[in-house]
Design goal:
With 353 residues, the protein is an alpha/beta fold. It is built from twelve helices and 14 strands. The protein folds into two domains: 125 residues, 3-Layer(aba) Sandwich (Aminopeptidase), CATH 3.40.630; 203 residues, Rossmann fold (3-Layer(aba) Sandwich), CATH 3.40.50.620. α9 packs across α12. It is globular and about 65 Å long. It is an enzyme of class 6 (ligase).
Length: 353
Amino acid sequence: MNNYSIGKIAFSDQHSLTQIDHLLAQEGIQRDPNLDYLCAMFDEDFKIIATGACFGNTLRCLAVAKNHQGEGLINQIITHLINIQMERGHSHLFLYTKCESAKFFHDLGFWEIVQIPEQIVFMENKRKGFENYVERLKSAVEISPVSDNKKISALVMNCNPFTLGHQYLVEKAATENDLVHLFMVSEDSSLFPYEVRKKLIQAGIAHLPNVILHDSGSYIISQATFPSYFQKNDDAVIKSNIEIDLQIFARIAQALGIQRRYMGNEPFSHVTNLYNQVMQQKLPEYGIECVVVERKEKNGTAISASEVRQAIKDESWHQVKQLVPQTTFDFLISDEAAPIIKKIRQSDEVKHY
């Protein structure tokens, strides 16, 4: 057993970051811009010989110097990162790795969810984590055998907050299908907290009995599957995130009998527009129809949650009232919303990248 030390690396420590970047490059990896913890293992000369990082409930940027491979160093790095995650309250962990490294991580207690052949594998540390998630989705509705006269569709929404545009899209899907699965992005990375977004969606779709609301968990548009939704990234990274996310959605769709997925056209958000483009290309490959719906407009402009947040920031309550259902507006002018309103007003950027 070696006596190498492992320590946290500050993101301002340029000397260590340069060594880490060199180490990662030897493994064909670039340092992920979305990290909230970074560590390194040092040899006797205080040279970095192994590294690893975290973001949310994911492990990232794992590498060992070539002249130290086979010494079990990556096991020690992962053990260190898992301990950090446990201290943060994260017991369900995810990681990305190259396809040729998947067996190694399987031996460390991670199981494959999906992979992009010859590129990356997405894994989790719960043997039946994804299977159990799908079973919970199934238990939320009595699944009928899919037949020609049974139309089942899906939507995925963040609703930050729930607008008349969201409501219009859900109503259209509900009118055109027998059953609609509405997956709400449950990652708590938006200005409107998860519990508030969920409450506003429930109120806004209460009149639609054939719509079932699900949490997306860590499997649909989350910091694990799709961090680029929440953080700025280059398009190549965004597209690989999207492909992982859509592969997972396709497996969920197969389990629930979902034949089509609805989405609004996207004139504002770069990342959502890219998502829509890739979705229109990829989902038909899985036998899922893509239905693109023109956004509901107000005064000639497509309604968006970004516009609502901007109107709140500008204290333009007359405009807000025109963009959201009454249920959302009633919440926004309540005392309960005061901390959120304050946060929006103090935020430098309220538009979605």
